[in-house]
Write a structure and sequence with these properties.
Elements lengths: L7 E4 L6 E2 L14 H6 L5 E2 L1 H11 L3 E9 L3 H10 L6 E5 L7 H15 L2 E6 L2 H9 L4 E3 L10 H10 L3
Parallel strand pairs: 1-4, 1-6, 4-5, 6-7
Antiparallel strand pairs: 2-3
Helix pairs in contact: 4-5
């Protein structure tokens, strides 16, 4: 008998589902060009492993997309997900003025989701998000197929220090 109330599978987008490598250069400038970084997100290529994981998880879970992208990118993000064959799901985004570290933003949302039903897995590339989620008792699949934090620290620093993605 199918489960009428499947648990959540929560997926990050940037560097988990989408290839952000071609737009990281906007964050290497001083000052960082956040407007261009975000505007160019609609042109990201798909990370094949991210799509495969999302598709597999959708077979038995309710999909939730949890991103640090600001709310003003909702339409572009939804269009990108649909155009690239990602499963239907609920999209949660950072408020436009929210500059908290990514781990805090995501753990707050995970806690709210858990009030409704269990979170089966969080899929994310950010080491700090993954560590904080595991410490809080969530099962985590680290998306290590995207950007490497050792060789490409720009995006990871921006997530924690500037609370922008």
């Amino acid at each position: 008998m199918p489960d009428d109330h499947p648990q959540y599978a929560v997926l990050d987008i940037d560097a988990t589902l989408s290839d952000t490598s071609r737009r990281v250069h906007y964050l290497e400038r001083k000052p960082k060009d956040w407007a261009s970084f975000f505007a160019d997100s609609k042109n990201d290529a798909v990370l094949d492993e991210g799509l495969a994981v999302a598709t597999t998880l959708a077979a038995g879970h309710e999909i939730v997309y949890l991103t640090g992208r600001p709310e003003h990118l909702r339409r572009d993000t939804l269009q990108w997900l649909a155009a690239n064959g990602f499963p239907d799901g609920t999209l949660y985004m950072r408020r436009n003025t929210d500059r908290r570290p990514g781990a805090q933003v995501k753990l707050d949302r995970l806690a709210r989701l858990t009030e409704v039903k269990p979170v089966a897995v969080l899929v994310d590339d950010d080491l700090k998000v993954c560590a904080a989620a595991e410490k809080a008792g969530y099962t985590v699949l680290r998306a290590d197929w995207g950007l490497d934090p050792e060789t490409q620290p720009t995006l990871f620093e921006a997530q924690e220090k500037e609370g922008r993605t």
